[in-house]
Amino acid sequence: MRKEPINYFQESEKYRPKIVRTLLIAEAPPPTGTKYFYVPRAMPTKVPVEKGTSLPATIFQHYFKKRPETVDAYIDFLNRLRGAGIFLMDIADEPIRIREKEGINQENLQYLISKIKTLRTKIRERRIFIDDEDIIFLLPRSHYKRQLDEEFPSSEKIRWIDFRLSPG
Questions:
Q1: Which of 83, 86, 94, 93 is nearest to 125 (CA)?
Q2: Is residue 131 predicted with pLDDT exceeding 90?
């Protein structure tokens, strides 16, 4: 287990393509603060793909039709995504928990929604120049789809399960 906090920006930059052709956008880094898409790890493959709940499993299943069982395989998948011009970033830069045992954390949801308004600026500040049609929002929930439609009307918004099971 990691002892120091993850520098999300630094970890993602290791696998950033020179030219981003497809920009995947998720909510935020995982709420535990101990894992991140761009920090390679072995992934369990015993859970059926239809029932999986991890973002890495969703993305890797979509593009490669399998999940990495070793750290080396995970690194290979990240390098293959980079080579194809596929990059993932988050709406929020820090871990937040939207779903809790009691239901949706409304305060965190509102925080995430507020970040949608500044997302276009954040993309430009990262020097990612991409058409909205080449942006795919990966949605674990639809609570902020209306705001995404307002800000990014021509971008695709797709539920994780649908993305995971669709052809790459």
A1: 93
A2: yes
- Residue pointed to by tokens 């009691």: 102
**Bridge partners, residue 103, by sequence:** 100
pLDDT in tens, 27-69: 999 888 888 999 999 887 788 877 777 899 999 999 999 889 9
Q: How far apart are CA 149 and CA 137, in angstroms?
A: 10
Q: What is the residue extent of each domain of the chain?
A: 8-165
Of 165, 97, 90, 75, whose CA–CA distance to 135 is shortest? Answer: 90
CA distance 105 to 97: 7
Rounded to whole angstroms, how far apart are CA atoms 141 and 112? 12
The three-state DSSP-derived secondary structure of 115-143 is HHCCHHHHHHHCCCCCCHHHEEEEECCCC
State which CATH number among 3.40.470, 1.10.357, 3.30.60, 1.20.1740 fits the domain covering 8-165.
3.40.470
- Tokens coding 29: 């880094």
pTM confidence score: 0.92
- Which single residue is written with the structure tokens 């399998």? 66
Tokens representing 153 are: 């009307």
Instruction: Give per-residue pLDDT as tens, 133-158.
Output: 999 999 988 899 999 999 999 999 99
Helix or strand or coil: residue 26? strand
